[in-house]
Amino acid sequence: MDPGVVLVPVGSILAVIAAVYVAVAKLIRLRATLPESTSADTTVRLEALEREVDGLRQEMAETHERLDVTERLLNQARDERRLGS
Predict the structure, then answer these.
(1) 78 with 1: CB under 8 angstroms?
(2) pLDDT digits (tens, 9 = 90+) for 41-63
(3) Which are the contacts of 60, defined by CB distance < 8 A and separation ≥ 6?
(4) How far is the C-alpha of 31 from the C-alpha of 4, rounded, in Å?
(5) Angle at CA 77, nearest 5°, toward 72 and 82?
(6) Which of 26, 47, 80, 84 is the most exposed place for a label (fewest CB within 10 A)?
(7) Domain residue spans in the chain?
(8) Which of 57, 44, 66 is nearest to 16 (CA)?
(9) Given pLDDT bands bounded at 50, 70 and 90, which one contains residue 85?
(10) Please, are residues 62 and 4 in contact by the beta-carbon 8 Å criterion?
(11) In the structure, what pLDDT confidence band is assigned to residue 8 with cuts at 50, 70 and 90?
């Protein structure tokens, strides 16, 4: 099995996870610095960040699903080669 085939999807998942963590860190930092009454601009920005995090979570779930399918296909091909040998 070519290690590059597995590393590309894993690298993609890691990139998505990193992006999610960065967005979550921004949310935490923003919420920690917010006064009790927030301005309309801050509320809009916070809601936009929350939507972005939700989108990134969805992308991560889809990427993870693709990785699972790829791993199954690779295992199936490897098993077929073993049986054919």
Answers:
(1) yes
(2) 888 988 999 999 999 999 999 99
(3) 13, 16, 17, 20
(4) 40
(5) 125
(6) 84
(7) 3-84
(8) 57
(9) low
(10) no
(11) low
Q: What's the whole-model pTM score?
A: 0.52
DSSP letters spanning the chain = --HHHHHHHHHHHHHHHHHHHHHHHHHHHHHHH--SSPPHHHHHHHHHHHHHHHHHHHHHHHHHHHHHHHHHHHHHHHHHHHHH-
The CA–CA distances, whole Å, from 44 to 26, 30, 61, 75 equal 14, 12, 26, 47
Mean pLDDT for all residues in the chain: 81
Q: Which amino acid is at 82?
A: R
Taking alpha carbons only, the member of 49, 3, 58 closest to residue 26 is 49
